[in-house]
Specification:
36% strand, alpha+beta, Aminopeptidase
Length: 176
């Protein structure tokens, strides 16, 4: 299933997306707030894509394209039918600050609450990741809580911010 926005196309992740994913996951600045080390080998990204594709109904991963160039990814994971899923996004550093994450995630949210009939989306990020927190808040996610030392980044335990968006909240915001 493809999702489209004014500037972007989100399509299911393909094995051929491994190089684009490696470009993001191999960037130390892009990975600063992730709990996994920076990738140093394309083969690791290839295996990650294989695993994500194999996850099937438990997860939906989209590669985000702009003018023929893969610039990021969005996902719905740990999907519980007609109820709940976790969501997230990751974009190439040279694409930050251009509104692509919010635009792509708006399409994912619409799909989750529309076609999929989900009631609740959750997201988490490191508390110090102010740009990601702003995107989530702009999309209507509310802060549910902070947990100290929850998600360890290699060598450092960082605080984690947990967010939630309910379908009725999302619908009310669109009507406002």
């Amino acid at each position: 299933m493809h999702l489209t926005t004014e500037r972007l196309i989100l399509r299911p992740m393909l094995q051929s997306d491994a190089a684009a994913l490696f470009a993001i996951l191999g960037d130390a600045e892009a990975m600063r707030f992730w709990q996994r080390p920076v990738l140093t080998r394309l083969a690791v990204a290839e295996e990650m894509v294989r695993e994500q594709i194999a996850a099937g109904k438990l997860c939906r991963y989209w590669t985000v394209w702009r003018q023929g160039d893969a610039i990021g990814s969005c996902d719905l994971s740990f999907i519980e039918p007609a109820n709940h899923a976790q969501t997230g996004f990751l974009f190439r550093r040279d694409q930050w600050g251009r509104g692509y994450a919010a635009e792509a995630m708006s399409a994912v949210i619409g799909h989750a609450f529309g076609e999929m009939g989900l009631e609740l989306l959750t997201a988490s990020t490191h508390a110090q990741n102010a740009p990601a927190r702003r995107v989530l808040e702009r999309l209507g996610f509310g802060l549910e809580g902070l947990v100290a030392g929850h998600q360890p980044v290699p060598g450092v335990a960082m605080d984690c911010a947990f967010y939630a968006l309910r379908r009725q909240t999302s619908a009310a915001q669109k009507g406002a």
